[in-house]
Amino acid sequence: EVQLVQSGGGLVQAGGSLTLACQAFGFAFDEYDIGWFRQAPGKEREGVSCISGRDDSRYYADSVKGRFTIFSDNNKSTVKWVYLQIDNLQPEDTAVYYCAADRPPPGSLVPSPQWGCQYGMSYWGKGTLVTVSS
């Protein structure tokens, strides 16, 4: 069973940094991409960054390039940690952030891990609120 447990988040001042963590377990890590999504009040969900389980390649949405960094630690065979570091936080980064996972579809015209960020994933964490004060 795919399980994603999130930690991190909270209230941060503009200009500060924050790292969100996603603990993943219950599936074959090299077969699943993992991503971070966010949903701000009144806005649609946005895939901000995804990482390939196969080769650790990364995708970033244009809106976050240069400030967001996704990285993983899968030294243990039963648990994989995926982190999202956010630098120079801005009030517009205020949102609920979700960790998600899915298998990339075979034959997709959109490469992994971009596919997951663009079209969404099947398995989701509970979300964590990040609030940036100006």
Fold and architecture overview:
The protein is mainly β and 134 residues long. It is 4% helix and 46% strand. It is built from one helix and eleven strands, in the order βββββββββαββ. The chain has one helix spanning 114-119; strands spanning 3-7, 10-13, 18-25, 33-39, 46-51, 58-60, 68-73, 80-86, 95-102, 123-124, 128-133. The strands form two sheets. Strands 2, 4, 5, 6, 9, 10 and 11 form a seven-stranded mixed β-sheet that branches. A four-stranded antiparallel β-sheet has the order 1-3-8-7, with no helix packed on it. A hairpin with a 6-residue loop joins strand 4 and strand 5 (46-51). The longest helix is centred in the C-terminal third of the chain and has 6 residues, at 114-119. It is globular. The chain starts with a strand and ends with a strand. The mean pLDDT is 95.
Key terms:
mainly beta, four-stranded antiparallel beta sheet, 46% strand, 134 residues, 1 helix, globular, seven-stranded mixed beta sheet, single chain
Our count of helices gives 1
Q: Roughly how much helix do the residues carry, as a percent range?
A: under 10%
Approximate strand percentage:
over 45%
Let me know the number of strands: 11
Structural class: mainly beta
How far apart are the first and last residues' alpha carbons, in Å? 40 Å
Cα-based radius of gyration, to the nearest Å: 14 Å
User: Sheet bearing the most strands, described?
Assistant: 7 strands, mixed
Topology as H/E string? EEEEEEEEEHEE
Coarse shape? globular
Report mean pLDDT, rounded to a whole number. 95
Low-confidence stretches are none
